[in-house]
Amino acid sequence: MAKTIITAAITGGIHTPSMSPYLPITPREIIDDAVGAWKAGAAAVHIHARDPENGRPSPDIATVREIVSGIKQSCDVVICITTGGGLGMSLEQRIAVVPALKPELASCNAGSVDFVLEPAAGKLKNPKFAWEIPYLQGTWDMVFSNTYKGIEHYARTMYDNATRPEFEVYDVGMINNVAHLLQRGILRPPIYIQFVMGILGGIPASVENLVFMVRTARDLLGDVTWSCCAAGRHQFALTAAAAAMGGNVRVGLEDNLYLRPGVLAKSSGEQVAQIKTVIEAIGRETASPDEARAILGLKGKNNVGF
Questions:
Q1: What's the topology of domain 6-303?
Q2: How far is CA 94 from each of CA 31, 61, 208, 229, rounded to the nearest angstrom?
Q3: Which class for 85: exposed (0-12), middle (13-18), buried (19 or more C-beta within 10 A)?
Q4: N or C: which end of the chain has fewer CB within 10 A?
Q5: For position 57, what pLDDT does the model report?
Q6: In the chain, where do the E strands start and end?
Q7: CA distance 14 to 135
Q8: Has residue 42 got a pLDDT over 70?
Q9: What are the residue boundaries of the structural domains of the chain, listed by start?
Q10: Integer Cα distance of 256 and 259 in angstroms
């Protein structure tokens, strides 16, 4: 079996600064967390940017460039840049990082979804910043839009820049979206899918649903490379199951702020170390960054635009 790729999603666009003092916000904090995840065994890191003044998700290309350049200078980890961005960002803001920075890997959301974070607003008693509660509450009436036209535009932009799309699949119907676009020749094999489970609005996080998603992907797409991440308390149960099934895994503070119930993770690296122990305990090996590049067919860190 191929080795298991561990990806660390460093900060994301979901959690707000008041949820954890360990959530990295500034470029320096995000760089340090990414390098720490690499040291702990991550072959890839998934990158969002934030406004260093208030921690709000930011589409600013200069900030993203500072982050990814800093990571690249410090280690050889595969850098996957988000095109999901943050809630409320325009489609053009989200895709702009690809032609500007030409990463090896970029996320490509495979369909529209109600991406609801509103319940978290009620748990913030004394938020550090005024934007946090309205940001979360606004998801009660918001669709995270990724139309067929949008997916096509994102994918073509990635191919034009030799960037491999990582298709983010939040529910089973999105696998059919990928299959349809592949059949029409808009997408190109090999296909790499990240199953994102447990988001309110998407498929619930359960082993049964993961098995169903993987089987459906194989039925529709054939020999597909896949990874799994899960929100909150489901993170380690689902990633452990994914590893046992021969898949790849994603952990990190974007997906879950805790190491175990009641214990905040102090870094994404702590979560990487924990899932690496699980992977090795079931007899599998973890991939190095260069092994991950070979598995995913990436162009190499020296061929990016940063």
A1: TIM Barrel (3.20.20)
A2: 20, 10, 33, 21
A3: buried
A4: N
A5: 97
A6: 6-9, 44-47, 49-50, 57-58, 78-81, 105-109, 164-169, 192-197, 225-230, 248-251, 258-260, 263-264
A7: 9
A8: yes
A9: 6-303
A10: 8
pTM of the model: 0.97
CA 253 to chain centre: 10
Alpha helices in 90-230 (DSSP H): 91-95, 97-101, 118-121, 132-137, 148-160, 173-183, 207-221
Q: Which of 22-31, 86-95, 240-249 has the lowest mean pLDDT?
A: 86-95
Helix, strand, coil % in the chain, rounded to nearest 5: 45, 20, 40
What's the pLDDT score for residue 77?
Answer: 98
Cβ proximity of 85 and 59 under 8 Å: yes
* Crossing angle between the packed helical segments 61-74 and 27-40, to the nearest 10 degrees: 40
Which residue stretches of 147-206 are H helix?
148-160, 173-183
Q: Which of 78, 79, 83, 17 is nearest to 52 (CA)?
A: 17
Look at residues 71, 83, 92 and name the one whose alpha carbon lies nearest to residue 110.
83
Number of other CB atoms surrounding residue 62 within 10 Å = 11
List all residues 6 or more positions away from 188 whose beta carbon is below 8 Å from its beta carbon: 159, 182
Average pLDDT of every residue of the chain: 97
Beta carbons within 10 angstroms of residue 74's beta carbon: 14
- Tell the residue number behind the tokens 């840049």, with chain if given: 81
pLDDT band at 85 (very low <50, low <70, confident <90, very high): confident
